[in-house]
Amino acid sequence: MFLSPHFFPFFLVVAASSLAASSPDAIGSYTGCAVTCETLAMKFPNQVYLGATNGTDFVASREGFWSTIQGDVSPSCFFQPVSATEVSVALQDVQSTSCQFAVKSGGHYSYTASTIEGGLVIDLVRFDGITLSEDKSSAIVEPGNTWASTYENLQKSGVTIPGGRMFGVGVGGLTLGGGVSWLSNRYGWTCDNVIEFETVLASGEIVTASTTSNPDLYWAFRGGSSNFGIVTKFKFNTFSQDKMWYAKLSYNATENVTANAAFADWGTVQSSKDVSNAAVLSWNAQASGSPVGVAILVHQKTFDNNTHPPVVDKFYDAKPTAIEPANVQRAYPFKLIN
Questions:
Q1: What's the rounded mean pLDDT across residues 96-116?
Q2: Where does the secretion signal sit in this chain (predicted)?
């Protein structure tokens, strides 16, 4: 099984810039945000949605989060830049007013990390470009994409990226947080497959972070989240991938012992025997009755319908109470998983 070579304790991470945080006790000012939003609205009149007007664009932006917790937050405004230069302008403006801000990629956080009450939300939704290299070995993906749009674009050329396991997750947040993929057993975390980051620093300077340019920033971005700058482009390694095998098995409490043994065997033995396979395993509590076990199984190779790869034999031997028929999906079966 692939283990990331650069794992580091998150409590040692110190922000290399003065980017404002979205926590309640972050240093900064909410009062300056009204000024910042009005200034940005004058510079970019069709890209700033003010909370004071509560117009349809503002409401749509506020409701454009996966979590209702984030949707209940009311920023002073949303700013939707279209270039790194425009992001730079916004960062320079917030410095003069001490306005607190948050950055949104796909908005899939369950807590208020990509929005902020009374502050500025830099919404990267318009950064939606995807460019595949001529030799198909790499792709530049902008952070306004979700993994759905990314996969659907790249699958046309028979390649993919080891990215998120759910369609609605944004490229930016998952990549900067590390990123677990169905392909991680073979290729590592999502962040392990970033070749370079185009980044806007707190100063407004636009730089590239790679192994040869700003290598310390490159190291920090791979798991350090959004503490070091605003990434406006990711250059990823790509890999050939056609359709994949997928199945979902369920177990009831009476088979706990057998199913748990299968779950444990996959984690300790089988997952390293065949790096083409991946699984999400859980026991889910029910409002009434016994917990239900679920095994979501994926394999990078394809098999005939209603057959399965040998690496998952023990899941089938554990007497599942329900089997979603094994079949072949597009390169990622995410639409079957929320």
A1: 88
A2: 1-21
Cβ burial of 255 (10 Å; 0-12, 13-18, 19+) is middle
Q: Is residue 73 part of a domain?
A: yes
Strand partners, 233: 198
C-alpha span between 198 and 210 (Å, rounded): 9
State the angle between helix axes of 84-97 and 32-43 in degrees (0 to 180), rounded to the nearest 10.
150
For residue 308 the two structure tokens come to 């399965």
Residue 253 has pLDDT above 60, yes or no: yes
Chain segment 33-76, per-residue pLDDT in tens: 999 999 999 999 999 999 988 799 999 999 888 888 888 899 99
- The number of residues making up the chain comes to 338
One-letter amino acid at 293 equals G
Residue 162 shares a structural domain with residue 234? yes
Assess if residue 327 is contained within a domain. Answer: yes
* Residue from 84, 74, 91, 80 nearest 46 by CA: 80
CA geometry: angle at 68 spanning 117 and 149, to 5°?
A: 100
Q: Does 167 share its domain with 210?
A: yes
Task: Report, in this order, helix, strand and coil percent for the chain, each rounded to 5.
Answer: 30, 25, 45
Mean pLDDT score of the chain: 86
Beta pairing partners, 101: 120
